Amino acid sequence: GRARALMAERDALRKEREDAHRIAADTRASIEMEAMKQRRELQAIVDAEHKHMEEGAHGGHVHGHGHGHDHGDDSVESHHAVHHEFDQQHHNIHAEMEEMKATQEELERDLQEQRKLLYAKKKLREEMDTERAEQKREEERIELEKRRLKEENERQRQEQLRWAEEQQKMMHELMNQQRQLREFTMESLQAEEAALQHQDHVDLHAHGHDHAHDHDHGHDHGHDHGHDHAHGHAHAHGDSFYGHDAHDHGRGHGHGHHHHHGHDELHELEYELEDEEIRKEKEFVEAEKAAMEKARQALLAEKERLAQEAAAELAAERERLKKEQEEERNSRQMFQEMQKQQREAFAAEQKAFMEELMAQQQALREQAKLMSSMFTAMPMMGAPQQAGYQDPRAGGYTPKPRDYHAGYDQRRTSHYDDFPVEEAPPEGAGEEE
């Protein structure tokens, strides 16, 4: 809308300028035509006067024996007067032409000024457009930055979530491992327990057998002295057979007891290790959680800070824009006011100029009319008077002295001052003809 308004304004200014040009051209043309017309009229008047004078001189020779001489002198003087008048007119016209030229130059200067103004306005508009584009680019940049921050925050949030999920997964895996370890430990313990019980049972059985053999041996010893050799053999055999077992039993039993004791210690150690591991894991998880929380807090603070910065920046930008728009509006108003004043002044000048021209042309026309009427009313020098001729002094048409132009010689108010009243043409001159 503003662009349209500006274009309309530009067209109006252009039209105004063209009108001014046209008016100036028309004025110049009309002045030149008027000047030419007046020159032609004056030339015609002078030619007519020459003709009159020639005829008068001729008539004087033929008819005017008594008065021809006087009239001849008058003619010469009158001729000089006409020439003086013509020169004066020519001078006046020349002066007017000069004045017109000066006015034309002034008009052109005005137009030049207007052109300069238009150029300045165009430049201002271009600068404003550039500034507006710059502003828009800045806004877009801010918008882009905000979007980027938003995306960054979102990405960090996603990262945190993923991290938390990974932590969760790790915890689950750890728990599973610990559970499996516990189960495995329990199973191995149960297996060992079962193995030990079985060993105890075997040892117990072997001990009982050995005791029985000892009893039998005592009995045999007591009853049968005759079988020493056999007994010795048997004893040795028993020794070798059962002694091994007895020895084994002793060793086995001792080992079993020791094994029980070692097994408990192992159990304790495993539990301690497990507890330690769980504690460490917990600590690690706690530390991770704390770090995550800290990072989250830092992110939030950063986000808050960025949001505040962006808000402050936007507010400042908005304020600046508002101020600029206000300034632009003011400058535009001032410019329009100035243009309006200039247009009004220009129009007033043009009007005054045209009125002055019209007045001058009117004055010129009246002057030319007056001169031609004076020339036609003038009697022919030395020639017989025309029938129906009215003497200018007989109360008829009397030209009034007029100040047509400043500096014009006022002493010669009328050419009729050259004729004394006594020197009226002879009465019978007309009849002679």
Automatic annotation (TrEMBL):
<feature type="compositionally biased region" description="Basic residues">
    <location>
        <begin position="252"/>
        <end position="261"/>
    </location>
</feature>
<feature type="compositionally biased region" description="Basic and acidic residues">
    <location>
        <begin position="67"/>
        <end position="76"/>
    </location>
</feature>
<feature type="region of interest" description="Disordered">
    <location>
        <begin position="207"/>
        <end position="265"/>
    </location>
</feature>
<feature type="region of interest" description="Disordered">
    <location>
        <begin position="57"/>
        <end position="76"/>
    </location>
</feature>
<keyword id="KW-0175">Coiled coil</keyword>
<feature type="compositionally biased region" description="Acidic residues">
    <location>
        <begin position="419"/>
        <end position="433"/>
    </location>
</feature>
<protein>
    <submittedName>
        <fullName>Uncharacterized protein</fullName>
    </submittedName>
</protein>
<feature type="compositionally biased region" description="Basic and acidic residues">
    <location>
        <begin position="400"/>
        <end position="418"/>
    </location>
</feature>
<feature type="coiled-coil region">
    <location>
        <begin position="90"/>
        <end position="194"/>
    </location>
</feature>
<feature type="compositionally biased region" description="Basic and acidic residues">
    <location>
        <begin position="207"/>
        <end position="251"/>
    </location>
</feature>
<feature type="coiled-coil region">
    <location>
        <begin position="275"/>
        <end position="374"/>
    </location>
</feature>
<feature type="region of interest" description="Disordered">
    <location>
        <begin position="382"/>
        <end position="433"/>
    </location>
</feature>
